[in-house]
């Protein structure tokens, strides 16, 4: 069994704090491999909120004494004073992350992100981004560096944002498909200014082009090429507003060898030519300064 956790001010006592909107009290993770089981039972619950994320395997949660099997890619929310009873079994190879939090605006914050306050269990998909945020919160709680409480609140809000995005699109994509699309987004973001062929990328992932484009659009709302173009144009806009590179140089920097084609595409995307955009943004910056 592996476990790692951190507690605010190194205190294991649960607490309620109404002086700030959102406060992280503790965060941790368990991985069960050889230990037969790890049960938790809090008949009176806790006085703070808790979210548990099943990253791998499965866990058994008991709501109204009924055994509910929660599989990887789901989260469980407990509100204050709710009975908490759940068990992890080694045979299930369970990996779970958890965070306890409190604050004067917790319910309003959860509602604003569309996170359900009823039903306990909701699907969020499996993502390394969730694990990264939990691990960063654990580290901040352990190191207690300057302003770590503020950073903890920001990290938890980032988690809520990721959950909200997933809830908005629903469980449409299988976990492995989401992972592939996340990898594609990262690849395109890192290489947007290089020559990218969607057919070649799909083939490198052993996927058909049609399947890849359909899955990518379902995940992001746009096609792969639309996503790449948006990256190129948005970065060109920044260069036009903050650098002295001419249009030909900027076109080359963002991935276009033909400056005329770049200018036509830029105008199609923004409604104005690069030179017009530069005049407008430069004038705006001059007024602000």
Low-confidence stretches: 285-289
Q: Quick one: overall form?
A: elongated
Oligomer type: single chain
Radius of gyration: 24 Å
Give the strand order of the largest sheet, numbering strands 1, 2, ... along the chain. Answer: 1-2-9-4-7-10
Number of DSSP strand runs: 10
Distance between the termini: 58 Å
Q: What's the story with the biggest beta sheet?
A: 6 strands, antiparallel
Count of DSSP H/I helices: 10
As a percent range, the share of helical residues equals: 40-55%
Explain this structure.
The chain has 289 residues and is of the alpha+beta class. Helices cover 47% and strands 22% of the residues. It is built from ten helices and ten strands. The chain has helices at 106-112, 128-143, 148-169, 175-191, 198-204, 209-220, 224-242, 247-254, 259-270, 274-288; strands spanning 2-7, 23-31, 37-42, 49-56, 58-63, 66-71, 74-78, 84-89, 95-102, 121-123. A six-stranded antiparallel beta sheet has the order 1-2-9-4-7-10, with helices on one face. Helix 4 packs across helix 6. The radius of gyration is 24 Å and the shape is elongated. It starts with a strand and ends with a helix. The relative contact order is 0.10.
Quick structural overview:
This protein is of the alpha+beta class.
Give the topology, please.
Layout: E1 2-7, E2 23-31, E3 37-42, E4 49-56, E5 58-63, E6 66-71, E7 74-78, E8 84-89, E9 95-102, H1 106-112, E10 121-123, H2 128-143, H3 148-169, H4 175-191, H5 198-204, H6 209-220, H7 224-242, H8 247-254, H9 259-270, H10 274-288
Helix pairs in contact: 2-3, 4-6, 7-8, 7-10, 8-9
